[in-house]
């Protein structure tokens, strides 16, 4: 059966990087079909809603979406459309690879790690948050569950197994936050015991940050709770040259959404200056997910070769190329 992908072109630089990505995917002969769906500002203008029911229905039906960045207007009823989509489809695993690319300004070469962040609970649910009437005290609750911890740690180990990775590091603060972080760590230990062939390491989050900056090559897969994962995955993106090269997947039991990590970059929108690689790398994650790992690898190799040759690189990578010119250079190496 032909697999159809819901394509959300998004706002700002979204349509440009999506055109570039679909152009490159076309060269891979994936056999995938694409169905356009609107979300964000463009959806608000066209349909009067930030996430129209037809878009939700398309993702529900296709189970896989490739999504450009979206603008969440202030006062739009959501704090973030991305967060709303993650909640709607219970996309519990945020999977962010950080891989070194040639000719990028970064402190390290040969980094190859993946952060697996729990996406649905923890500090970001901010349960019962309030500020007292006199403005002197603020409160926000953190809930961690056995189920939430179990499925995210299991996801990390299964990812290690399926990609031939050797080590999973659970990042926590159980020495101080004994309740919530303690539960996460205990569950991580229980799950790890079921995967004796994969090395398990525990690391306190502050030490993990220092180790990531000093000796990032020691890490393979990191798994952690929502807040720590948000911070650590951006730290990892910084280690390999910034957000223009950082893809992310949001994966649940019944749906998965693949995206670039960066925002809509309104400062360069519509100018053909945007780097499309983050979304292309998200598309590579998508190809892995739909059972086309060979095509995912071909795409990644073509990106690496193009960057090695410094062919048509965009401004953020020190070149003078355009979004589509860069895509053509990558496509020519597939
Ligand atoms: P948003 O409000 O949607 O998060 P933002 O501008 O605050 O937008 P980003 O979109 O992540 O945040 O952009 C931060 C900076 O990085 C901007 O200067 C932007 O031009 C640049 N940038 C982001 N993505 C890219 C890209 N794909 N190619 C080139 N530059 C980018």
UniProtKB/TrEMBL annotation:
SUPFAM superfamilies xrefs: Isocitrate/Isopropylmalate dehydrogenase-like
Family per record: Belongs to the isocitrate and isopropylmalate dehydrogenases family.
Organism encoding this protein: Stenotrophomonas capsici
Pfam family, one: Iso_dh
Protein's name according to its UniProt entry: Isocitrate dehydrogenase
EC code(s) of this entry: 1.1.1.41
Coiled coil regions in record: none
EC supergroup of this enzyme: oxidoreductase
Example of a GO MF term: isocitrate dehydrogenase (NAD+) activity
UniProt xrefs under PANTHER family: DECARBOXYLATING DEHYDROGENASES-ISOCITRATE, ISOPROPYLMALATE, TARTRATE, ISOCITRATE DEHYDROGENASE [NAD] SUBUNIT ALPHA, MITOCHONDRIAL
Alphabetically ordered keywords of this record: Oxidoreductase
Transmembrane segments: none
Residue ranges annotated for the Isopropylmalate dehydrogenase-like domain, each copy included: 4-330
